[in-house]
Design a protein that fits this description.
Layout: H1 2-21, H2 26-50, H3 56-83
Main location: mitochondrion
EC number: 7.1.1.2
Keywords: Electron transport, Membrane, Mitochondrion, NAD, Respiratory chain, Translocase, Transmembrane, Transmembrane helix, Transport, Ubiquinone
Amino acid sequence: MMNMWMIIMVMFIFGNMIFISKHKHLLIVLLSLEFIVLSLFFLLVMYLSYIEYDMYMLMIFLLFSVCEGALGLSILVSMIRTHGNDYFQSFSML
């Protein structure tokens, strides 16, 4: 049980490190955000099973994470169509 908590924390820390360090391409940023969401999902699964609570909150969390992923992919597709690539340096953030 304790090993699973440590694996989840390592996943969360690695996802944050990738999010902070690799910000050249939008796809890598989106993948690191999904990795963070996946580690949070595992953390919720472990916590809710530990306190023997219903898993309805996990369905809501999955719903919002799928919507977040779809929104990120649609932004990525629209950026590639307008700018030709997913570099952050190729367009102005203003």
